[in-house]
Give the backbone structure.
Amino acid sequence: MDDRRETVRLLEPDGAVVAGVELPAAERILEGYRALVRARRLNEQAGALVRQGRLAVYPSSRGQEACQVAAAMVLSDADWLFPTYRDTAAIVARGVDPVEVLTMLRGDRHCGYDVAAHRVAPQATPLATQLLHAVGVAHAARLKNEPSVVLALCGDGATSEGDFHEALNFAAVFRAPVVFLVQNNKYAISVPLAQQCVAASLADKAIGYGMPGVRVDGNDLAALLTVLDEAVDRAGAGDGPTLVEADTYRIEAHTNADDAGRYRDEAEVAGWLDRDPLRRVHAWLCAAGHLDATAERELADDAERMAAALRTGIAEETPVDPDELFAHVYADPTPQLREQRDLLRTELEATP
């Protein structure tokens, strides 16, 4: 892909500040680093839970944690987050209990957390469908004069879906207060970006919808905060949507069911390891005197407490009520549904 659009970057991969730029406040970057440490530990622990059979599947966001954390940090309590299946770390950074977030991935029938209380939509597995929902919520907020902005996450594969077009077109026409954050991690499962799009950049797609398109280094937390802050402020001021493309990389396989070695080589992965988002922020914080060994231990201990609580919570068996199979099909159960329910009850009562 011929990438001609400028990529916004504030910190170089080695943590050096790009000449002539202004960083967000150090306290905010330190807050983001804490969330990054927790996000990395979450990915590690969730992967272990899959191998132990505690989770059915887990799509890791290792390498993309800066996108996840920034997406949560730029939102106020009144705003909404619409995540995909890979955005577990973003939901946790938004303040949702990790055990509740992973409930769906252990095979439960629901998403595990209170959507309305947290203003976080359920994680969407079908590509791009959540973008339409996000635009609907944003449009409704605008009609009701509510001060809400919606941030919708998706991957590069989702930009090839019809729902992506419909969502951006509607949002632009009706100036919905929504920000679209595309985490371009280079692969739609095994399909490389070059085989699904020949645009100079995914951010260039914004031109066709008459909205701003920004490309940002997705492994640079400082740059992400700056770009997303501006997009959220723009949406909240009534100036309509923005498309943000975050240039990042999926370090681990698509899920635990995927063999990434079949479609990419280790040299490619190694090159992106050198651009690790945690190491980049860590290097700047240490060089600027905002992080010492004591603070690092405290952050690591905090992340480990989260991981321990996650292990304990996921190990607890969820009580099963067979009647729930019939409780939410119709508001008023049909005669056939009641008959099936009664038959199951009879069979269960007869089971030793």
Q: What stands out?
A: The CA atoms of residues 286 and 292 lie 7 Å apart.
